[in-house]
Amino acid sequence: MRLDLAVARAFSLSRRAAREAVRLGRVDVDGAPVDQPGLPVAPDASIELHGERPARRSVRTRLTVLYEDLDIMVVDKPAGLLTVPTEAREKDTLWTRAIHYLQHRYGGRPYAGIVHRLDKDTSGALVFARNRPALHALQERFRRHAIDREYVALVEGTLPDRGTFDADLVRRPGLRRSVAKPGQEGKRAVTRFQTIERLAGATLVSIRPETGRTHQIRVHFAAAGHPILGDRVYGSETVKPARSLERQLLHARRLGFSHPRTEEPLRVESALPADFTAALSSLRGRSNAPQRREKKAPVQPARMRTNPRNP
Fold first, then answer.
1. I want to staple 179 with a disulfide (CB 3.0 to 4.6 A). Which of 86, 167, 250, 304 is the partner?
2. Domain spanning 1-56 has what CATH number?
3. Measuring CA to CA, which residue among 138, 121, 89 is closest to residue 257?
4. Which residues on neighbouring strands pair with residue 150, listed in sequence order?
């Protein structure tokens, strides 16, 4: 049941009054304030109404929250921001912004458990756990690959309608990764993709990684000859507007998983950021320009296998 409906029934309020009470932070669920009227609550949940409580203050923050409840928080990571501090102890990261947000909103000593990461220049949806049981549950879901993760990317060249990259990855000096050579032992990495739109010199693709190796998507597409536009490490700058991009156009668009407490399915989506949509519009404009028509060969699904164990 939705929280606002439960409040309305429990305290004989109109639905509108119940919704407003929740939004003002005057409702506690199991002892903690909640301000999301649509939050699902269990039938045995303890709900308290504090009508005289001052309205919750708004939080000025550089963090965009896509979904939040007592157990998890899904945020929108901007490109150019680290997920967590490195050995250099950076002060401004997505994690530190999450901590500051929770501290200003709820007070005390907030907890933001790190479930997974996105590369510094990758944007999109990322989930933090707000308590240790939720952290362990979500980490286990990621280990079992019980997370529906969808990325979108603009890649160089023309791809088939769909395909699978199945190629082990090995670590190179620094943070770089590469596809394992024959006889070289690496970590298993599988990436599935589906073409969304073919453009002038590039393709917009939907990507679902089955494994979660560092730089997996970027390395797989680059090894196949289709680097992600703007990727300074694994890509090229041969396709406009790649030469003017400041980062690789890879975006974590959707996260789907069962809630760590209720087991209810949850799906959160992050909209494409401005730099991604601008590049997409530019490529669409070039695609619509008058061009000489050429006969194209039929496009077949692709599967890349480069490992000795995967002949």
1. 167
2. 3.10.290.10
3. 138
4. 254
State yes or no: cis peptide before 37, omega within 30 of 0.
no
Across-strand partners of 305?
A: 166
Please, where in the chain does CATH 3.30.2350.10 lie?
147-290+299-305
Q: CA 159 to CA 77: how far, in whole Å?
A: 28
The dotted CATH code for 147-290+299-305 is: 3.30.2350.10
Amino acid in position 279: A
Residue 151, classified by CB atoms within 10 Å of its CB into exposed (0-12), middle (13-18) or buried (19+), is buried
Q: Which helix (H) or strand (E) holds 223?
A: helix 216-223
**Residue 15: its H or E element:** helix 15-23
Q: How far apart are CA 290 and CA 42, in angstroms?
A: 59
The tokens for 100 are 């500051």
- Give the pLDDT confidence of 263-298 residue by residue, as tens digits: 999 999 999 999 999 999 999 887 776 544 433 434
Convert 132-147 to b/e letters by CB count within 10 Å (16 or more is b): eebbebbbebeeeeeb
92 is known as an active-site residue: no
User: Which residues lie across from 32 on neighbouring strands?
Assistant: 29
Query: Of the residues 4, 69, 76, 119, which is catalytic?
Result: 119
d(CA 6, CA 9): 5
24: exposed, middle or buried (Cβ count in 10 Å: 0-12, 13-18, 19+): middle
The model's pTM is: 0.74
d(Cα 87, Cα 80) in Å, to the nearest integer?
17
